[in-house]
Amino acid sequence: MQWEVVIGLETHVQLSTRSKIFSGASTTFGAAPNTQACAVDIALPGVLPVLNKVAVEKAIRFGLAVDAKINRRSVFARKNYFYPDLPKGYQISQYEIPIVQDGTISIVVKEGEKIVRLTRAHLEEDAGKSLHENFKDMTGIDLNRAGTPLLEIVSEPVMRSAEEAVAYAKTLRGLVRWIDICDGNMQEGSFRFDANVSVRRPGEPLGTRCEIKNLNSFRFLEHAIEFEVRRQIGILEDGGAIEQETRLYDPEKNETRSMRTKEEAHDYRYFPDPDLLPLEVPEQWENEVDQGLSKIGTPQAKRARYYLDYAAHGLTHYDTLLLTESRETAEYFENMIEHLGADAAKICANWITGELASALNRDNLDITASPVSSHQLAWLIARIRDNTISSKAAKDVFWKMWKPGHRDLAKSPLPLRSQAGVDRIIDEMGLKQISDSGAIEKIVDEVLAANPKQIEDYRAGKEKAFNSLVGQVMKATKGKANPAQLNEILKRKLAG
Known about the structure:
- The chain is elongated.
- It contains 15 helices and 17 strands.
- The chain is α+β, with helices and mostly antiparallel strands and 496 residues long.
- α6 crosses α8 (345-362), α10 packs across α11 and α12 crosses α15.
C-alpha cells in the first residue's frame, strides 16, 4: 500500500534590524562571543523590555505581502523552558494571538502552481547559541543572538514531498529578501527551518509527527525529510508506532536522531508577559507600512505586470511564477529585456528557467553569483535570433562561457563584456550557422542527387523520407545549416 507524506514548515526569519527586539544591543553578525548581550537580553533584575518598532513594521510588511490578516491587537507571552543558552529561563514569543494570521504563498512544483496556506507568523526573540566544537567535554555559551528579533512563519501541513518543501522554502526566502525584511543568510542563521514530518495511508487522519530542528540549507532540508519519511514508513510497516519527538539532522551520516520528546504547547506554560503591554496596530500604521511595501513591490505585483506586458509575446503565468522566485531573478530577466526588447520575453524566460537554472542548481549557486551575466546571456540570445547560431549550438556556447576557463578562448582581456566577445567564442568553436541560401542549396542538390529513392518515397507520401534528407544535409554541413532555410529550400526542390 502507498503512503502519503505530510509536511509543515516552521521557518525562523531573523528580521533585519540594527538592534534587538527588546533592547538596544547590536545584532551585527560575527562579534566576539558575549559582547552583544545586554542586561535586558538576559533579564537581569530591574530591567524592562522595550519593543523594537522596526521589527513590528517588518512583520506587518510580511503579512501584507502574503495577503494575511494583521491582527489589530496581539499579545506577547513567556514561553518557559530550560536551555543552557537561555539564561532567562523563558523566551518572549506570541502564542494565542499572533501579529499575522493566515496568508498564502504560491510555489512552483512539477504539476504547476501550488498554493501553500500559512497558519500564522508571530514575533519572538531568539535564544543564545551553544558551542561544542572548541570545548572538550564542555559546552560554550554565546549570548550574542539572545534577543535577536525573529518572525516565525508557520505553514499548514499541506506539502506532500521533500521537493515541495524545498520549493516552499526557496520561495519564502526569495520573498523575505524581496520585501527587505531579512537577508536570508542561512550560513549565519538568519533563515532556518523546523520541519514537521508525518506519514499516513491516503484518506486516513494525520499520523504522528516528528519535528526536525534547525535546518539551515535547502539540501539539508531535502535530505532530512527524505530520511525521516523512510524511517517512519519502515517503523510502521514493521508494526511499530511513531513517537512524537524532536529530532536533529546529522549531515555527515545523512540521518536524523532523537533529541527530546516533543513538547506540546501546555508544556511551555505560556502566560502573557507582565512587562509588555499588548501590541496595538492601528489601521493608519498598517496603511503606512502598506504604502512603503508598494514602493518596494511584491512578487505578486511583478507577476501581474509581466503577464500584462509580455503575454502577447508568449510569456505564460507559469513563466511569471518562475521569474519572480527572487528579486534577483526578476532583475536578471528585466536586464535581458532591456537589451533585447519585449518580443524576446519568451526566449529569455526559457533560457533563465532552463539552461541557466540547471547550471545554477548543478553548481549550487545563487543567480547573483552566475558566471554568465544577464548581458552576456542577452548577447548570446541575440545571435540565436539573428540566425548566427542555432539554439542547440547556443547551449554549447553557454557552457563554454560558464566554465571558469572560458576567458582563455578569446584574445582580448575582457572577452565577454561585449557582443564581440561572444562572437569570438562562436567563431573559435566553429558554430556559426550557414545562412547563405546559395551554399545550402548547393548541398541540398548534392544530397538529392545521391538519394533518388528517398525522393521517390517522399513524393509517395512518406514523411520520414523528408526527415532523412534533412538529416543528411545537416550531416554534410556539420549541423550548421539554418534549419528554416534548409526546410524551405528542400521542400521547394522536392515539389519541383
